[in-house]
Amino acid sequence: MGIQILSKTNQAGRSRSATIVTAYLMKRYRLGFSEAYHRLKSVKQDVQVNSGFEGQLCLYEAMHCEVDTSSPVYKQYRLSKITEKYPEMQQVPRELFAVDPAYSSSSEVSYRCRKCRRTVFRGSSILSHPVGGGASAFGHKKSRNLTGDVQCTSYFIEPVLWMEQALLGVMDGQLLCPKCSSKLGSFSWCGDQCSCGRWVTPAFQLHRNRVDEIRQLSMQKQDQVPTPQTPTPQTAQ
Ligand SMILES: [Zn+2]
Ligand SMILES: [Zn+2]
Q: Where does the record place Low complexity bias (predicted)?
């Protein structure tokens, strides 16, 4: 079936068709991108997936062949695409920003400024990343605890609406609390390296020691009930 689609398309549509067929193979046969693409090429040698589509297929693989626009992987990918599209960062689509948690209610875990207690982001805004090589990535010892584990000292998050003024028109800068102006972290549209060694592009990071994690009362009540569902404390990524 896939082969028929390919033979009917012109040059311009060929990359798109190859992408669709590759995505189909990935989902249908639970293959990774390179395996699926390799199999397609073995039956139709002149197929070509351009680098843009290749990036999307790798994302598709990372999301386990489900398109979930709320997943951190998807959000990080969308942010990196925006950086390519708006190199001067004068106008960034508003939907890219998470709503300001100070002006909306939610039962989610939230994080607030340690100094003035203003809520600055929610748990769903955290864009977690696989922990990097740590000391080896820096060439010196940094951010390792006593057991030798690598630690991320910042939360990398999606941009939140209160950051908008600080983010536009510049490539990097500080992120200050919108209420008390204490320094919470920094951002860079070009990306930044986490303390664990991993590069994150673009990067919006708030230091873990400048914010407090707040869990809702309803969740704390569950602690009193002796069930195995007690939430794990202070380890949300
Ligand atoms: Zn990290
Ligand atoms: Zn503050």
A: 220-237
